[in-house]
User: What shape does this take?
Amino acid sequence: MQDEVYHYNEERWQALVEAEALFTRPMLDLDVEKARAYLGLERLGIPGDLAGRKVLCLAGGGGQQSAAFALLGADVTVFDISSGQLERDRLAAEHYGVGIRTVQGDMRDLSALDDSSFDLVWHPYSLTFVPDARIVFREVARVVAEGGSYYLMCANPFFSGLTHHSWNGEGYTLQHPYTDGAATSYPDQDWVYDRTSAHIRQPLEYRQTLSRIVNSLIREGFMLTFLSEVRGDHPGAEPGSWAHFTGVAPPWLEFVWQHAYGSLSRSSTTCPAVGS
Assistant: This one.
């Protein structure tokens, strides 16, 4: 599915790799205990015994999560759009002497992966990089085993596209329409990469409403087992700063879903409308 969205994301992530952006730096100082703490599986309610378990890091290249899972004994596959990101995963695997499979592609098309082949799909922040989350969820439902888990971290739908730059002296002003597929773009945060030496196109993201996310995953046979609103805790932070913003408008959500039964959308010839 190499459309305009694919090419934009591939080009941007290659530029981020070259700029040594935060999410492209492999973690090369892990041990088993650090890996366990980094992933936080106990907090999420995901079984921590990963020996031999098949884990898919979906759109999660960069040599971070993949290395942590491999150190805990998991059989790890990384699927990512960026060849540069996947090279970081291979670098981390070589550093730790572990095996990691890497596959390049678009999260909207997981046809390179077998049905029901993963016990855990780990999907860090990337869902908003595509216009329609339902396509991704359909693919995830196909590759995760029955009883398997799907960890999803994504933009908080209510605040998607809002940043600390939206401070108006009294609060943070919402400006983007709350509709599925609405495009948003905003400057990268200063902590993502050295903004003085790299000039990278702003992220182009698409709003996914909460109803679309939740209803679509229910239709694909998932049951919600964990939800967290990821927020900052910085008492006394200056209004208009990133630290203050994250305490007022939690920018991210974490979900854990269990694939409990067959997809409703694949069990009928017509797919009733879900949150759209």
About this structure: Confidence is low (pLDDT under 50) at residues 267-276. The helical segments are 4-18, 32-39, 41-44, 65-71, 83-96, 133-143, 210-219, 242-248. The chain has one domain: 4-259.
